Amino acid sequence: MDPIKVLVADDESHITQVVSLKLRKAGFTVVMAADGEEAYELAVQELPALIITDLQMPYLSGLEFCERLRANPATSSIPAVMLTARGYSLAQEDLAKTNIKHVMSKPFSPRELLAKVRELLGLAAESDGPIAEAA
Amino acid sequence: MTQACVPILASAMHEVLRQRCATLRLYLWHFDAEGRMIDAPPMNTPVGTLLRAPYFTNLIHQVSAKWSSSTDSGARELFPGCWCIVLEEMERRRRRGLMIAVAFEARALDAEEFAAACQSASLDRLATAQAMAKGSLFSADCIATLSVALRWSLEDLNESGRHHEALTSSGRQLTELYEEISLLYKLGRSMNELEQPTKFVRMACHELQQTMPYTWIAARFRNDQDLCRAMAGKTIIAGAVPDEKQFAAQADGLIVAHGASGPRVLDSAAAPLLARENGQVVFVPISRNGEVIGAFLAGNKTGPDPTVTNMDIKLVEAAAGSVGTLLDNAFLYDDQQILFLGVVEALTASIDAKDPYTCGHSERVAHLAALLAYEHGLEDEQIERIRIAGLVHDVGKIGVPEVVLCKAGKLTDEEFGQIKLHPEIGYDILKDIPLLSDVLPGVLHHHERYDGRGYPHRLAGEKIPLMARIIGLCDSFDAMSSNRTYRAALPREKVLDEIRNNAGTQFDPALAETFPRVDLRRYDELVAQHARMSAEGGLRVRRKPGGGTIS
User: Fold this and answer.
1) Using CA atoms, how far apart are residues B444 and B519, in angstroms rounded to an integer?
2) Residue B312: its chain A contacts at CB < 8 A?
């Protein structure tokens, strides 16, 4: 089976690096974008199984990017996870216009993000997860 | 955030490219995205003078304006034999400038534009052509190759710039994370400072303010004694708040308005006295047992991006959570201390109740022992344990028959034997109470003598625990200073003489030497107070640890 492709979009390179490192180690293929415009171009071109995007990006915000994805039949069903850094949350009516399935606020745990990605893609939980408590 | 370092990097990159072009004998112009010239070849050579003269400068300007809107880069001919290698300068997939490197073929020297350029620069055409022929000319093939190599060079420089930026951004992020981890670690490590919650809150505010770029960080507690106890109505501020006088009232208003709805970011309309215009205030309630007892507030973020981030809120939340838990524990600890001291006082009262002649003895010995321990240079914590040991040192007398304890005449050997059991009985009574385990040596050994002739274990010298030596001396001082069934109290001077005379036999000589430094004023007040109580029929009223009285 081909590895599953995930698009990671964030203008802060340390975030894309951290997220893609975690995803690649878990067997995913990662494509990275540094702004909303590039993210949209890559999404259309690569048709990833899932998108992880920052909210505040140059040229096209994460929300605008996801709205465009939703409007394009080729990308409308791709689920997205939104990362937010600002001290306020997204309005429900904004999320309704997109296919954003989950919002995570920075700083987030890469481990939890990976678990969420697996969950959204209907994959089994990682076997090397936290050590089970002894009975 | 990442934008700030780009111009520096771009200029460094341009400088590298300019030097490389100079080495290759190419002449480099640099234009911004609007076509304005940023840099041009130096004028320190005849060719430089030629290129910077108005004629050539105009030519370059014209083509740069034309090319800046085109996406087609490569080598283009400016006039016969004069080639421009056009390099796009990109940032975040947008063109931020154009660089043009000029190279000449030999045939350029025959072009009329070359003649015009020489004239414009007031240079002799022949002499300039001769100078250029000595190494400043290339073949057409060579120029094509140079064009490709220069583009590669630029791509590599761009790539290295991106890596540098990523590294700088990661490094900066790592530095911030280290600070944040260190803050959380400090909060966690200080969670056991239950006796000084104010100190903990002050530390939390100070550390937050050191870690986060905010002008001020403050904690405000509701003025509710039941909920906040020692913290009630307190405001702790790190940094400079905008209006210190109004601060508490404003913060209280916010706690009432927003406390129940969790952390939030308030703008200057919601917190007019706290947030500067267009500024923001982070507001995080502090809760204890589900009740809001106060809030952390952080205001007026500084730096290039003054917008509050989730990280800021999470850090303040961590501090608020720690403070809530710490206060919970501190209050439980307080309750436990009050209960513990209450039980100890009750024990003491029950001993004294058995023998009205020793009314208040335990309290006086505890008081003296604490003072002597202080004069002896012990730490606060040890002093407190010695005070408690003093309170309970005679608890074993509960197990001595009252007829013996209160006998007016001389005791028989057997009766004295019964009295001598009280340290061990006391030890047995208290030995299973964990909170009193460290006062047991004081109870068991307070009748040992320095010369080893005491009881119960006939320990001598330093083998007698210091706590027991201190209590033993104070016990004797109080006994000699009190009326007994068989004798009246000795005068103060006589008592002090006795202590001096028995230094090294009954008493630890070092303690005996220190004892006269003990301030006995409060002791004398206690004696008078206990005498009144005794006359009123016994010691039923005792002081509560908090300062009030309970009957």
Assistant:
1) 27
2) 87
